[in-house]
Hints:
94 residues; 6 helices; mainly alpha
Amino acid sequence: MKDLREKSGLTQKQLAAQMGLSKSAISQYESQERIPSPISLIKISSIFHVSSDYLLGIDNKNRLDLSGLTDEETEIIERLVDSMRRKNEKIKKF
């Protein structure tokens, strides 16, 4: 969670304010002294656009949240990802 928060440029205080929690609660979540409630887990997932499975360590892949994008924008991103995968496959062969 700390990595997600830092990558988003948020302080513990800012994240706490968004979630309606204390800064110490965020600190405890990050140090694994305290486990987020299901409601807090949903809020964290929403703020960082990741699945709750990712936060819980069940799924180690950070997935993109494409909600709010048009079908055309989603298709462009999918084509870009496919292109990058093909490029990486070619590089691996060498």
